[in-house]
Amino acid sequence: MSAKILEKQQLSENVFKLVLDAPKIAKKRKAGQFVVLRIHEEGERIPLTIADADPAKGTLTIIFQVVGKSTAHLSGLEAGDSLLDLVGPMGQPTHVEKIGTVVCVGGGVGVAPVYPITQAMKNAGNHVISIIGARCKDLIIMEEEMKAVSDEIIVTTDDGSYGYHGFVSQALEEKYLMTGDKKIDMVVAIGPVPMMRALCDVTKKYNVPTVVSLNSIMVDATGMCGACRVTVGGKTRFVCVDGPEFDGHQVDFKELIDRQRIYLDQEKQCYDHYCTCRQQGKGA
Amino acid sequence: MEMKERLKILRQPMPEQDPQVRKRNFDEVPLGYTPEVAKAEALRCIQCKKPECVEGCPVEVDIPGFIALIAEGKFIDAARKIKQTNALPAVCGRVCPQEVQCEVRCVRGKKAEPVAIGRLERFVADYERAAGEVSIPKIENMTGKKIAVVGSGPSGLTVAGDLVQMGHDVTIFEALHAAGGVLVYGIPEFRLPKAIVAAEVDYLKKLGVKIETSNVIGKVATVDELFAEGYDAVFLGTGAGLPSFMNIPGENLNGVYSANEYLTRSNLMKAYRFPEYDTPIVRGKNVAVIGGGNVAMDSARTAMRLGADHVYLVYRRSRQEMPARIEEIHHAEEEGIELHLLTNPIRYIGNDKGWVTGIECLQMELGEPDDSGRRRPVPIKGSEFIKDVDTVVVAIGAGSNPLVQSTTPGLDTNKWNYIVADEETGQTSREGVFAGGDIVTGAATVILAMGAGRKAARAIHKYVMSK
Ligand SMILES: Cc1cc2nc3c(=O)[nH]c(=O)nc-3n(C[C@H](O)[C@H](O)[C@H](O)COP(=O)(O)OP(=O)(O)OC[C@H]3O[C@@H](n4cnc5c(N)ncnc54)[C@H](O)[C@@H]3O)c2cc1C
Ligand code: SF4
Ligand code: FES
Fold first, then answer.
1. What is the ipTM of this complex?
2. Residue-level pLDDT at A284
3. For residues A38 and A44, is the Cβ–Cβ distance under 8 A?
């Protein structure tokens, strides 16, 4: 089905938010699930986590960072434009229950997908601590939204331009795990793979169960192709149907990082092609 | 023409693209009969009183009937004759294994070569389409019954086409963004041009079938929710789309694909036209394809067209046991695909960046027959060897996708998680739910999926009209 863009907003230099008209998906989606969209006939299938939904209004919110041609193209669309295809909700919903104190960690644009999980954890009656981080102050997104669904919040920046100076993993360790003031029952982390890996290294030391949401390369996202496979606990799993969330202490991050780089050269070629075409005014 | 003369005509060869040229393009390989050649071939049919060929056809096309019309030059009538029992002749004429179905039974094959039934079927379907004379029957007596069809492969398309002509309100729900199932994501352009599938889908739309692409049943709506929305019956034609891997070391290295992914990227996403199309694919120079079926042949021939220097087809049994159509093996060899028979991969070797660089194999020999009646391949001790490759495509079969089964309580499945359905009606363990095609039989053929669709359509009609 196609979907109309109702609203567009730029959240930071490279991060955009779109509100889509998608009543069927809005009604069914749960925290942790994602959609796959296609912009135009020649376009690829792009998986994006659902950042928020309003079942009454029939709307879905997606937040994405411009990282290549497809996301650049997506960021060029405006309210009133339509996406050619939108399919979802895909993937398993987050397992949400009251377990005590939950830390929700979002790195970079990963704050967007961690937001609905944070909200669900809070609604389930957990004490929610959020840690959100980015390279610098300007790249921090959704601070107000996260505050509204958290009992405590820490904002970190790699360069110290705002909040805690350092990585989210350092903040978690220094402020909570090392002090041992509060028993942390679970950590949920979403962000760039190196960040999730660093975070899992820390939580493993303290034996804190950690769930990560993986963004592997996908094609169909229905379990048909295996493009998204990851090794978890020595077994091959498909991120699109078995995930996207897995036990972070079991994930083979090295393999995931390698697999994310399969098409690096082609992606660059495609982006260059797109930029040249745009300069020549041919459209994409 | 006298019978004696007819018996003298030789089987008309199919003109084809030259192997050296076609191995680097994605255009269709066979070029098709001309009207003159088709007529000559049609005259070879001796119009048997008890035509054995018809018995060999899973949907019992009136083969001598349509061939007689071709001999008379009535090509459009011939196409309509086929369509009485087979809704997709342009597809079946290209991909059906005629050599084990109708043509193997043809009496002319006993002394000479069988009548080229498949090529004639393809000819009339193409003729009809090119002439723009595809007629849209007018549907009267709308029943007011709503039917949901899940999956738009050959089984789903057949069910939908039959039911809409019986006056029902039919909606197909398809997970992907394009309709056609394996016909669009699996079988490559050079064997089945996508324009043909699109024309068939378009025809269904003109008949009044609604097609909702990008709708995954089990996710956006469950089967029970479809009933709650007012559907009177549901047909499940979700196919066998779960890729199998061998679970050997190194299978997740970069450059190792499932056939489903490789073919989906190339066909559905048109990665062979990258960067005009955005979806990339690895264009390997030394490609190993694992398997011996049609899917393996399609993968190997795709790899060649993507610019490989060497494509090795690695199959653990011998040529006799290869499940692929003989024609496809022949085409592949003509294009330079190198067959490594009685060879089984045991691990993939990678570099520090996680890319596959080699494949270690064992040489096999044939032992005692196994459950399938084929001689079981057994490894020869100490025969390990390594081949350098930069791309691997694993084409060793497919399983059932659990999306619908796991969200439909009371739907019985067998031990491989295929849906249990009555062979004659497609009836499942759930009232009002019917199933057919690969999701019931396991990976099979286009025509068997269509046959199952046809039977289910009759049963669904009976069911909804008696409600
Ligand atoms: C590469 C390849 C080559 C082949 N070559 C030949 C050949 O030469 N000759 C031949 O006769 N056969 C061939 N086959 C086999 C043949 O294509 C299949 O047997 C046939 O397509 C099965 O038809 P089907 O309708 O059961 O399912 P499929 O064609 O598999 O279609 C199923 C459809 O259902 C959709 N679907 C699945 N789950 C859901 C869901 N939950 N909600 C909505 N939609 C869903 C899928 O996306 C798909 O589009 C080949 C198969 C492959 C893979
Ligand atoms: S068996 Fe052969 S000769 Fe006889 S009717 Fe069929 S196609 Fe014609
Ligand atoms: S993306 Fe194809 S199986 Fe997960």
1. 0.89
2. 38
3. yes
